[in-house]
Amino acid sequence: MLCTVRDSEPWRALGTLTTGPPSDAPPGTTSSYDPYLNALPGLRPTSRLSGFRESAYAGSRSGRSGLPPRPVSATGPPPG
Q: Is 51 inside any structural domain?
């Protein structure tokens, strides 16, 4: 169940996420999701623990690409 909450309001359901079996695709061709690089305008992940999460996603990108991590600012992905 995917839920959201706003200050001083109760949690509310947005939808249900259903996953399938693990992919047998070769490494480097699997899909990934990074909410810091793929955020909708005006919709950012919560600021609670965001520094840790941004670092984790940057490290994950680095591990998949072999390139050094690129930090993501609070306003969106870095240019280029």
A: yes
56 is in which domain, residue-wise? 46-72
Q: Is the pTM of this model over 0.90?
A: no
Residue 15 inside a domain? The answer is no
Find out whether 17 and 9 touch, Cβ atoms under 8 Å. Answer: no
pLDDT in tens, 16-69: 988 888 777 776 676 677 777 777 888 777 777 777 888 887 888 787 776 666
Domain count for the chain, please give it. Answer: 1
Q: Enter the tokens of residue 50.
A: 């965001």
Tokens at 61, concatenated: 């990108």
Contact residues for 22 (Cβ-Cβ < 8 A; gap 6+)? none
